[in-house]
Specification:
heterodimer, A: about 325 residues, mainly beta, 3 domains, 6-stranded mixed sheet, 1 helix, B: about 550 residues, mainly alpha, 6 strands, globular
């Protein structure tokens, strides 16, 4: 019984396939469309197969490792399983993309192949800056610069706090860590090749130039700005002492010790700041020697600074004032 | 005769198949008796538990585990591996010269959706459960099951979104006519994950212990929520994600009270409080007996600060464990472990059972991945060095000569101590720690630094370091610094403290420095793994090609592929 069933089954299956076995293998055509032939690096290119009579279509994008001419030396292509393949070229250049359409019979006795080609030009004209960092020369401290449309703004404190001491920052000798958006771009500082070892004078208004692989150049002007501080701060003739915060570049502390018995609630501090365009407490403008302040608790002043000809380049700092009595 | 039986059956099936396609009579359409369908299942809380077990089961599968180390560890810079040099699918992936049809992309995508599908079936049928009594414990049981399912669904989506970017959000009830779902944006997927985690945190006990050890609790939900927020936020950019992380850390670590209102973000809900409570399986107000309390918006979440600690306390006897024990059996479910994947010894003497799984970890340890030179340099002066990595032929802490290949450094978190090895080496069981408490503390420190609470950030950072210092009795701590220095110190500590937990690659991507780090790594090996990494492209892997194909392009490819 089982044997009989077996024979029936095999006949049935054989009959199903028999009809197809003697068909002629037709010549395929390798037509296709491509979404763009002029692209930037890493931009997706879509290949869509529109040919006919192909059991399989493969696209060879034409760059290293994907070259149809080198298929016997290990180059590979992308199989278009639903007639569509996407690819993005990582390097600039002119490439010949090849679509290979193949048709073969089920037994693999006969196969026919058609090939179509297209030239794709890949350019790399990205000349944007990614980041600019003042490297660790600031006594093992780092600082990120702000990148604008055509400028780089470096905001620096006058001093940084290291091991409980305030150390002056040298704005005229800074190592820079600069990276461009494209790894293929080259960077120069005021026309000289950039090096992360060289110390640059940031006060001399240098420029950062980024040249894309295509030769397109973009220049960024470097501006510097200082976090404003009180150069002098005194109450009733008693000068305060300033220390810098170990946690923030934009924060300083001023402490003033007044004679015992002083009423701390109504004092008029006298202060000066070379950089501050405005001085305020909780949004209220303060005038040196005029404004009355309650110092029974610590008071935080906000000082602002901006570049006269580039008002978009601005910064803000905090001065925390603590007044005690002897 | 017996031998040809399969052949006959095979033919028999062809005949049946032929009948299926030709016959139109309805005798084949009769309902199958005794089989479970989604609509007949999930009727009792025991069946719900089985449904939940099926979701957990995904975490134990080899496919899930393999994808976890390949993407999370082998792509990163803490290890070098034997798989890198060659033309295997793993080699192409970790060298970033894969194409969109790479098998591992599909495997990772698939296994997450398999988990999501199982969770969705359970969540969409949770209301078909019937009770014999209105006992409050019945509600608690169902609520705990629903909460865990939500956590797991969120975890699967999180793995997807950090690998592929925005992905399709599957409807809880699948419609056979609308199986093709386009990708949601990254933000939408993150919002979906957050909602699940926020709700799950309200539904679960702080931490499950004893016989329930290994079930995710409120602590795991809050920890994962913090992690999700951290991946949404960008370092250096002000964001309410950082603010909320700091708030959640205040609750998790320093014990500040957090209410349901705080964590749920109620303004985003269309439901009334009663409707929400009913959906989340709190016992309805009208069914409460005297003495039972209704949960309000102002109810506080369970306290977590006293449950977890940086010093590991054993879950079995409460004793203080060595730093290294966290990664071994002695440290299972200990006070330093927040979320771990449980593996069981099958005791069959065979390696065929997926759920014993950790043969993979043995294989990684002995044959596949070694500490990279870059990692060895990073830990050179750290008290944890000898606990984390060990050179070939050195003696292990349990006096074994370490037979990893010559000149290689083994990653000791994957080591199985002698006294924990099963009788048969194929019966492996070694729980995988996914989130540990020091990760939570370091996430908290990072958020504190981002929101400008730097003194506190330094305190938290040094708490983690101080515990590590006890290993060799040193006292080097991190120092005060401004934003970038604090951040770089926290990231240094993250690398060492959380190393080899299969998370490093995604961490450096999140930090925005994967390209820099991997390009530096390229000089380590002659074949230069890392050199092909393209900044701005490879931070997201491509959607698997078959997914783009079967949806006829409705699921769109990521840019650059």
């Amino acid at each position: 019984m089982k044997k009989y069933l077996n024979i029936v089954c095999l006949t049935l299956v054989a009959a199903l396939f028999a009809a197809c076995s003697d068909e002629e293998v037709l010549m395929p055509t390798a037509d296709f469309t491509v979404s763009a032939t002029d692209v930037s690096i890493n931009q997706t290119v879509t290949f869509a197969f529109t040919g006919s009579n192909a059991v399989q279509a493969v696209v060879f994008p034409g760059d290293a490792g994907h070259d149809w001419d080198l298929v016997n030396q290990g180059s590979t292509g992308l199989v278009m399983s639903k007639g569509v393949a996407t690819y993005a070229y990582p390097t600039a250049g002119v490439y010949t993309a090849t679509i290979v359409a193949t048709n073969y019979d089920k037994e693999g006795r006969e196969s026919k192949m058609a090939v179509a080609k297209v030239t794709i030009t890949v350019t790399d004209d990205n000349n944007q800056l990614r980041s600019v960092i003042l490297q660790k020369d600031l006594y093992n401290k780092e600082m990120a610069a702000e990148i604008g449309d055509d400028y780089v703004l470096v905001t620096m404190p006058y001093k940084v706090r290291v091991n409980n001491r305030d150390v002056a920052v040298k704005a005229n000798a800074q190592r820079l860590g600069i990276t461009a958006m494209s790894p293929n771009a080259t960077i120069d500082i005021s026309g000289e090749p950039y090096s992360d070892k060289t110390k640059y004078d940031l006060t001399a208004s240098p420029t950062i130039g980024v040249t894309a692989a295509s030769g397109l150049v973009k220049t960024y002007q470097v501006y510097t700005l200082s976090y404003p501080v009180f150069e002098t701060f005194s109450i009733d003739g008693v000068a305060g002492t300033t220390t810098y915060s170990a946690y923030s570049y934009d924060k300083t502390f001023v402490s003033v010790t007044l004679p015992s018995g002083t009423d701390l609630t109504r004092l008029k501090p006298v202060f000066s700041s070379a950089d501050a365009l405005s001085v305020s407490i909780d949004g209220q403008p303060q005038t040196s020697g005029m404004s009355e302040v309650d110092f029974s608790q610590t008071v935080t002043y906000t000082l602002t600074n901006q570049l006269a000809d580039h008002p978009e380049c601005r910064c803000e700092s905090q001065v925390v004032v603590e007044v005690t009595v002897k | 005769m017996k031998r040809i039986k399969p052949f006959i059956f095979c033919n028999f099936y062809i005949v049946v198949a032929a009948l299926l396609f030709t016959s139109c009579s309805d005798f084949l359409e009769k309902e199958v008796q005794g089989a479970s369908t989604p609509d007949s299942f999930y009727k009792t809380k025991y069946e719900l538990q089985e449904g939940l077990n099926a979701v957990y089961d995904i975490l134990q599968s080899n496919q899930f585990t393999n994808c976890a180390w390949i993407f999370g560890e082998a792509c990163g810079d803490d290890v070098v591996g034997t798989d890198e040099n060659g033309t295997s699918q793993i080699a192409e992936l970790v060298n970033f010269r894969f194409d969109t049809s790479n098998d591992w992309l599909l495997r990772r995508y698939q296994i997450m959706y398999r988990g999501i599908n199982r969770a969705n079936q359970l969540i969409s049928h949770i209301n078909s459960v019937k009770f014999s009594s209105d006992d409050a414990s019945n509600y608690t049981t169902v609520q705990a099951i629903l909460g865990q399912a939500k956590f797991l669904r969120a975890y699967f989506y999180f793995e997807l979104v950090r690998t592929f970017g925005g992905v399709p959000i599957r409807p809880e009830t699948e419609d056979i006519n609308h199986l093709t779902i386009p990708r949601s944006s990254k933000e939408e997927v993150y919002a979906y994950i957050e909602k699940d985690l926020r709700e799950a945190a309200c539904m679960l006990d702080a931490k499950y212990t004893d016989a329930s050890s290994g079930k995710v609790g409120c602590g795991a939900c809050v920890a994962l929520l913090m992690k999700v927020l951290m991946y949404e936020a960008t370092p250096g950019e002000h964001s309410n994600k950082w603010e909320e992380m700091a708030l959640l850390g205040d609750y998790f670590i320093t014990g500040r009270t957090l209410t349901y209102r705080d964590i749920l973000h109620l303004d985003q809900y269309d439901e009334t409080w009663d409707q929400l409570m009913r959906r989340l399986w709190f016992k309805p107000r009208e069914k409460l007996l005297s003495g039972e309390v209704y949960t309000t918006e102002d109810t506080a979440l369970p306290a977590l600060a006293n449950i977890y600690s940086l010093v590991s306390k054993s879950s079995y006897d409460g004793s203080t464990l060595h730093y290294r024990d966290l990664y071994y059996q002695a440290g299972e479910f200990c006070s330093r472990s927040v979320f771990e994947i449980v593996f069981k010894e099958s005791a069959t003497g065979k390696s065929d059972d997926d759920n014993e799984g950790m043969g993979i970890m043995n294989d990684l340890f002995w044959n596949r991945l070694w500490a990279s030179t870059s990692f060895r340099n990073a830990v050179a002066n750290d008290p944890r060095r000898d606990v984390i990595i060990l050179l070939h032929a050195s003696a292990t802490f349990d006096n074994e000569r370490l037979e990893v290949p010559a000149t290689r450094y083994g990653c000791m978190k994957w080591y199985t101590p002698k006294n924990e090895r099963p009788l048969d080496e194929n019966d492996n069981a070694k729980n995988r720690r996914v989130i540990i408490y020091s990760d939570v503390v370091l996430m908290y420190a990072e958020a504190l630094n981002e929101v400008g609470r730097r003194e506190e950030a330094l305190t938290q950072l040094n708490r983690v370091k101080a515990v590590a210092n006890e290993i060799t009795n040193v006292s080097t701590l991190y120092t005060a610094g401004t934003y970038l220095e604090m951040r770089s110190q926290i990231w240094t500590e993250r690398r060492i403290e959380l190393c080899h937990l299969w998370d490093r690659y995604f961490d450096i991507v999140r930090q925005g420095r994967a390209a820099t780090i991997l390009h530096n790594l390229a000089s380590e090996q002659v074949w230069g793994r890392g050199k092909n990494y393209i900044e701005g492209i490879h931070e997201l892997f491509p959607i698997p090609q078959t997914e783009v194909d079967v949806t006829n392009g409705v699921v769109e490819q990521n840019p650059g592929y």
